[in-house]
Write a structure and sequence with these properties.
- With 44 residues, the chain is mainly alpha-helical.
- It is built from one helix and no strands.
- The longest helix is centred in the middle third of the chain and has 36 residues.
- InterPro entries: Trnsprt_adja_ssu-like (IPR049820).
- This is Transporter small subunit.
- Keywords: Membrane, Transmembrane, Transmembrane helix.
- It comes from Psychrobacter saeujeotis.
Amino acid sequence: MDNVFIYGLYILIWPAITLGVLVLICTATYRDIKKAKRNNKDIL
């Protein structure tokens, strides 16, 4: 493999990882908000 390809892949994989973590955090927050509203409680 070419070093340029490896470096390019390394640089391009970070936005995908970041997007995955952001989706995970947003999904967990949304579920917590729904659960709190269903139980008539505050999130904090």
